[in-house]
Amino acid sequence: MKKIIALLTGGTTNEWVISVKSAATIAHHLDTDKFEVYKIMLTQQGWFYEPADSVKIEVDKNDFSLHFNGRKVTFDGVFIAIHGAPGEDGKLQGYFDMLHIPYTTCDALTSAVTMNKGYTKAIVNGISDLFIARSMQLFKHMPVDLSSIKEELTLPYFVKPNNGGSSIGMSKVKNQYDLKDAIAKAFKEDDQLLIEEFISGREFTVGVVKLDGKIVVLPATEVETAKEFFDFDAKYTPGVATETTPAPIRADTRARVEKIATAVYEKLNCRGVVRIDFILTGDEGDFYFIEINTIPGQTATSFIPQQVAAHGMDLKTFYSKLIKETIS
Of 22, 171, 302, 320, which is the active-site residue? Predict the structure, then answer.
């Protein structure tokens, strides 16, 4: 018997457009022999199922159901494909927990904590062989002392919204006179921000997922861009960045990356598929943790589909195993 799955997309942040593209990839590769899929769009105006040959149907939020073709549709599970709020910050997870409906992502607590870059770094700090850039956390309701930042941290800095994604609102500050504007830009996206020292090295990202009861670290991707940093355009515009999967790193480095990534996944109590961004300094030296994404992109240009292919698995099998692990 087919499982009835809600594929939840959209969202209430600037990342909604990426969520829609991710959901399109997922929908295309979900096994229709195993799953009856309803793509549901979440917006500020409401939650709707939009069948191809009918008007959109509003979801009953009391029990997350909908009426379609003369019957009430309830769901065996939810594939959450919303980047940013409210899909990646724990809000939807808490809602589905109360309704006892399983979902494909990390739980509410892990989702909420990992959405905050500063809190996440405090938790993973102490993992063997993992390094963290020096940083300061600022809050919008508190006065900003620029002089203390300049005393505490060494230029250049990255200034980024603490709870944001897709590098929206992020700046690289090489001159102290640009710091004030960078802080203002980040505060437009969030009430908290993180200022951290720039770490020079090669940039990588790696997917981690539990499949068939075992944690699997996918082949890492090396990211190279001529831009100052891997910003929104570099992430989602084909040709702006060079992405090499699997990354050209030594076997011993690959083993160390897998060990650290597994430790991060376990310490943060992750579920489903996540993506960890990191930098290797020098000649594949220290591993610096940048951030973790608990609902990584699944678009045509996203890393996870690339890494799944490099792992020797097709997306239909990958998504089926992911649903079996988290929902079945």
Answer: 302
